[in-house]
Structures are given as C-alpha cells and as structure tokens.
Task: inverse folding
C-alpha cells in the first residue's frame, strides 16, 4: 500500500515541478516512473518512522 502512495506522490510532485519549470519533462518522467527512486523514498520514509518511534520512546512521548 505504501508503494502505491509513494508512486502517486512522486507523479504529482514531478508534475508540479515540471509545471513550475524546475524540471524538464524528461526528468519529471524519470522521477515519476523510476523504481529505484521509489524504493529510495520508501526506505527514507521507513527510516523517518523508525527514528520518530525511537525519539518517542526515548523522551517518553508514548506509553
């Protein structure tokens, strides 16, 4: 399920960047369809979630 959300987010993000002129259409297509980019983003999201959990346990934010 997370991979679907990541793909949708990358497509909309790439479309926004292409529309603003920050990316060329070819770069936007690569960003939206490249599986390596999607895996990297998924890994980063997992790392952020685990880091947040660690901080919550360390500072007593969770019970």
Result:
């Amino acid at each position: 399920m997370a991979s679907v959300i990541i793909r949708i987010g990358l497509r909309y993000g790439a479309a926004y960047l292409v529309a603003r002129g920050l990316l060329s259409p070819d770069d936007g297509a690569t960003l939206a369809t490249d599986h390596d980019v999607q895996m990297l983003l998924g890994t980063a999201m997992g790392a952020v979630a685990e880091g947040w959990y660690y901080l919550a346990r360390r500072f007593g934010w969770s019970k």
